[in-house]
Every structure is written in C-alpha cells, then in structure tokens.
Specification:
- The complex is a heterodimer.
- By secondary structure, chain A is mainly alpha-helical.
- Chain A has 20 helices and two strands.
- In chain A, strand 1 and strand 2 form a beta hairpin.
- In chain A, helix 4 packs antiparallel against helix 5, helix 4 packs antiparallel against helix 13 and helix 8 packs antiparallel against helix 16.
- The longest helix of chain A is centred in the first third of the chain and has 49 residues.
- Chain B is about 75% helix and about 0% strand.
- Chain B starts with a helix and ends with a helix.
- Chain B contains six helices and no strands.
- The longest helix of chain B has 26 residues.
- The chains are: A mainly alpha, B mainly alpha.
C-alpha cells in the first residue's frame, strides 16, 4: 500500500499534472465566484478537455477545479452577500457582516485557510479509510454491487430537494439513457434508431455539458443580462490576511468538529455541499464560546461552513471509489471520467488501480493547499473578475459548451446531444426533478448492467433474494422509500 | 398545487418509459433484460409519484393557468435553437461569431461596435485555443460539405 501511495504521489508531481491542477484551480475559483455559475458548470466546460488526457492529468484538472470552486463561492458570499455556489450559503451569514466592518480581506483569508484545513482533514480520513474499505469491498460480490447501485439512487432521491418519487424517476430515466447503444453482451443495438453516433452509447460529456452548462444559461438569462452588483470594497491588507490565518487555528475546536461533520456528510450519498455548509454553521454556533456573535461577523461563523465544504470531498470520494456509488452529480462525473479511461470504480480501485486512487487523494490534498495559497494572494483581484455581467458570460459559456461537446465526441451528434439535454435539464429545473439523480443513474447504468449479468451467471436469476446481504440491502431500500413517503406526507401536513 | 405543465411533464416521462419498454421487447432476451428492468423500475416509481404526489395534491391549472416558462426562458430557448442551426449550417467558429454578435446586439442591447468586437474576439479566442493550440479539427458545417 505504501508503494502505491508513493507511486500515486509521483504521478501527481509530474509537471503536466501540477500545471493542469493550477489551471483547474484558477477556473474553479472564477466559476465558483460567479453567482449563477456553479462547480457543475465548471466541470461541464472542463470535462471535454479532460477526456483527451491521461487519468491523472484529467483528475488533476477536474478535481483542482472542483476543490477550488468551494473557495470561489465564498468570495461572492463574503463580498456581495450572494453565494457563488449553493455550498456557500452559510458563509454569507458571518462573512458579509465581517466584510461590511471593513475586514473583507480577513474574511477571505479565514475562508481560504479553513477550506485548506478542512480539505486536508478530508484527505486524511480518505487515506486512512482505504485499508478498511479494501477489506469490506473484497468481501462483497456482484449481486451486492448491483443492489447497492439502487441503494445509492434511493438515498440521493430521498435527500434531494423536493419529492422522493421525482428523484427515483429521475434516476430511472438516467439508467434508461445509459441503455442506449450496443448491448455489451449480445452486441445488439438498442435505442439507436439507426444513428451511428448512438452505437457507442450516449457519451456522458455532451449530456453533462447540456444538463449543467446549457440549461444554466437559461437560468442566468432569467436573472438579467446586466448582472451589475454592488460589492463591498476590499483593500489588500497583510495584517488582516495574517489574522485570518490565525483565526482558523485559534478556533480549532470549530475547525476540527465541522471538518469531521463535513466528512460524514460527504460520505452519505445525496447530502450535498449546501447541507454540509448549513449544518456546519449550526454546529459551529453550538460549540462556539461566543454564539451570540454569530451573524455579526464571527470568525468561527465562517470557519465552520468553509471547513465542512472542503472536508466533505474526502468523504464523498470514499463510496465513489470503494463501492462505485457516486454520492452527487459531481462524483458521478468523476466516475464517468474513470469509466471513460477504462477504470471501473469499485473493487478495482482498491486493488488494481490503487496508485490512481492515491493520486486522487494527493490531488485533493494538494489542490486544497494550492487553492488556499492562490486564494490568499489573489482573492482581492479575483473578486474583480467575478462580477462579469451575464451578457458576456452566456455567449462565452454557450460557445465553450458546444465546442466542448463536439470535441469530446468528434461528431456533430455531440452538439445535438448537448442542446437536447440542455432542454431536458431546463425542464428538470422547472419541474424540480433532481439533476444529480439523473446523472448518477446514467453513470451507473452500464456498471449495473455488467453486475446484473455477472450476478445472474454466478448465482442464478434470483440472486437478489438468495444472497442474504443483497436481501438486506433491498429491505433497507424499501425502508428508505417508506420513510421518505411518510416523512414527505407529515411535512406536507405540517405545511398545510 | 400541481400545475397542468407538471402533470404534462410526468405524462411525457410515462410515454417515454412505456415506449422504451415496448422497443426493448423486440430485442433478444439478453439485450432486453436490463432495459426492461429499468423501465419496470421507472414505471413503479412513476406509479408512486402519480399515486402519492399527484393524486394527493390539489390539482390546479386549466385554461387560464400561467405558463411556468417566463418570456426570457422562451426567448433563450429560441436563441439556443438558433445557435444550433447556425453551428450546423455555418460550422462552429462562424456559428459562434454570428450567434455572439446577434445575441449581444438584440438580446443584450449592446452597441453594434461592442457586439462585433465581442463576437469576433470570442470566436478568434476559440479558434486559437482549439484549432491552433490543441490542434482539434472543428465542425465546418453543412455548407462546407455541400
């Protein structure tokens, strides 16, 4: 294992991987900071580029951006009281009041430092959990993996906003979309309608580009094209930056506790960054020595949400790597990237590709450190870029999305797919169907099918009732659905 | 309250799912196994949605119901379709240029000068990045094929 860890680090320290990580971090900070754009939009724009790279370079670019988005989101939360991403909602509560008191540089510094510490704690938990996960993973077999995919979909549906049924339906649609293309066992084309582009199946990249970038542009236009916002003035102040760094360690109890909470939330499929952010704020307030200052610019009011935001990434990678169950849309995209590169998440990640898994962990750690350094040095200047009006953003993102969709598939079908799924993504948003469930379903589709055929060959067609663990997981799925329905009913009754 | 549009969307999903199941029936037993399983799963979930959500919530809508699609949304959908048409006919780089110029001029109400500079600048940046630096061959459009 130590050898794999060192090998993983050697991969990440390659100049190309480091350079791409920096590019990813820069893009992530800007996308995170632009209210209306999200980390998913950043991933959607970057993924066509990543598809042409080796696994470690691709992951350096994508994970670098994904980690940095969290800090980027806090810039607009602190300066204009508008979270750049949903994961920065609670950062507004104390970040903005602190900025209004003339301490914007300190608030940004706290955010950067807490993000780094949280991210490193997440990394530690991820690395330490790998040997334990390895034992668990090796004890499971194809039937369990098959059923666990549905468990993941059920959890995501339960915990996403709105109705559990919509979440489950969205997951089913995602699975259905994954069925397009030639059947892997009998090589018969399915749902291709004679279109050659569909024979290899629907590529995840144009779908993600459409779902998250194109659809998001319609939302952005809704917000208005001028996009002019009044922001708090930030004066570069070294003493404030230093104070921010110190704050993260002065309030160490909050830093450590909320980082732990973030890891836990990341581990549970479906609980996203917004939940981590808000729950960490509540926990921070509860254990703080001066809860009465929360809401008025308390340093630990910024530390909690920011530390949890970044630590959750380490937690979220555990089920993705070990069981092949992505807990969120972004993790599903990472899983899609693995699959594109011939690496199937699950047991192989902890045996055959352990070096890649460690590379992933190192990237999380380094990206956190680098984005903090960039954040501390450049936050004041980055803040200016984040106020680009929507009238410029929309054509830029649309152009990148369409070109990216074409380049990834090397076929005009990629463009048509991106636009089609842009409309589908828009409809999902309007009618409150969780996009994450759809993407997770789509990514899991082919893996699930593989496990279905394997499990049937090994244990017969009734494998899900003859294997005790599988049966247990099915019972958990049913319990989760029943709980979700009853909880939804009681919530509606309370609202009425 | 459940809007007419929301019910229509759920109905569209039902039609797609049933269609997928029917199409899968024409496949061989191995190829249709997973699609049928997925269709059955989705239908069960849809049934749950119809039974527990749509049935229990007050049905709304009717002739006078407002569309959930704002005027801006409808315009943007039109712009995106126009973008697709431009890219398919003119190719990626000219399509991006024309779309950006027209969008900036008529949707963002920028001046002709600003729109032209932005449109040409953006397409130039994309051409330099993808065609020159990354050596990607970009789609040239139907016109070139003709």
């Amino acid at each position: 294992m130590l050898e794999a860890a060192l090998q993983g680090m050697a991969f990440v320290l390659q100049p190309s991987a480091l350079a791409l990580m920096f590019v990813g971090i820069a893009i992530g900070i800007v996308f995170g900071g632009l209210p209306g754009l999200s980390g998913m939009t950043a991933l959607a724009v970057l993924i066509p580029f990543a598809a042409k790279m080796g696994p470690v370079d691709a992951l350096a670019l994508l994970l670098g951006s994904h980690v940095a988005v969290e800090f980027g989101g806090s810039i607009s939360a602190i300066l204009i009281n508008t979270p750049g991403t949903g994961q920065a909602v609670a950062t507004c509560f104390d970040g903005y009041p602190m900025a209004q008191k003339g301490e914007a540089a300190r608030a940004l510094s706290i955010s950067a430092m807490a993000s780094a510490v949280g991210g490193l704690i997440g990394f530690l938990v991820l690395v330490l959990s790998l040997p334990i996960m390895r034992e668990i993973v090796l004890a499971l077999s194809a039937p369990e993996y098959f059923i666990m995919a549905f468990l993941g979909l059920t959890f995501i549906a339960l915990l996403s906003e709105g109705s559990i049924w919509k979440g489950l339906v969205a997951g089913g649609l995602g699975l259905m979309v994954a069925m397009v293309g030639v059947d892997p066992v009998s090589s018969v084309p399915r749902y291709t309608f004679g279109w050659l582009y569909l024979f290899d199946g629907l590529d995840i990249i144009p779908v993600v580009v459409g779902f998250f970038a194109v659809a998001q542009m319609i939302e952005l236009a809704r917000e208005g094209l001028s996009g002019s916002v009044s922001q708090v003035e930030v004066k570069p102040s070294l003493s404030q930056v230093w104070q921010g760094i110190k704050d993260t360690f002065i309030y160490w109890k909050v830093t450590v506790a909320t980082s732990g909470l973030g890891v836990l939330i990341g581990f549970v499929p479906g609980l996203g960054g917004t939940v981590a952010n808000v729950m960490a704020y509540a926990l921070g307030k509860r254990i703080s020595d001066h809860p009465e200052e929360f809401g008025h610019g308390a340093p630990d009011g910024i530390i909690g949400p920011e530390a949890a935001n970044n630590s959750k990434e380490g937690g979220a990678l555990i089920p993705t790597i070990a069981f092949g169950i992505p807990g969120s849309a972004s993790m599903a995209i990472f899983m899609g990237v693995f699959i594109m590169m011939g690496i199937v998440p699950g047991p192989e990640m902890l045996t055959k590709h352990l070096d890649i898994t460690f590379s992933l962990a190192w990237i999380v750690a380094l990206a956190n450190v680098f984005s903090t350094i960039i954040g501390l040095v450049m936050a004041v200047y980055i803040a200016k870029i984040t106020f680009l009006p929507n009238r410029y953003l929309i054509p830029i993102v649309m152009a990148l999305a369409v070109v990216g969709a074409y380049v990834s598939a090397d076929d005009v079908g990629g463009i048509v797919t991106a636009i089609f799924f842009g409309f589908v993504g828009y409809a999902f948003k309007r009618f409150k169907y969780p996009k994450a469930s759809f993407i997770v379903g789509m990514v899991l589709g082919n893996v699930v099918e593989r496990y279905l055929h394997l499990a049937s060959a090994m244990y017969g067609d009734l494998f899900f009732v003859t294997r005790p663990i599988s049966l247990g997981i099915i019972l958990v799925i049913l319990a989760v659905i029943i709980w979700g329905v009853l909880h939804g009913r009681s919530r509606k009754a309370a609202q009425a | 309250m459940v809007s007419r549009w929301e019910r229509l969307f759920a109905l569209a999903i039902l039609v797609v799912t049933v269609g997928a199941a029917v199409l899968a029936l024409s496949l061989n037993p191995i190829a249709r196994r997973m699609p049928l399983m997925v269709a059955a799963y989705t239908l069960v979930c849809l049934a749950g949605y119809f039974f527990f959500e749509l049935r229990s919530r007050q049905a709304g809508g009717g002739q006078g119901e407002a569309s959930p699609f704002a005027a801006t949304d409808r315009r943007m959908l039109g712009w995106i379709l126009a973008f697709l048409g431009l890219v398919m006919t003119l190719g990626l780089i000219p399509g991006v240029a024309v779309f950006t110029i027209l969008f900036s001029r008529y949707e963002s109400r920028s001046s002709w000068r600003e729109s032209l500079v932005f449109g040409v600048g953006l397409s130039l940046a994309i051409w330099l990045t993808f065609s020159v630096a990354l050596n990607e061959s970009l789609y040239a459009g139907v016109l070139e094929l003709l």
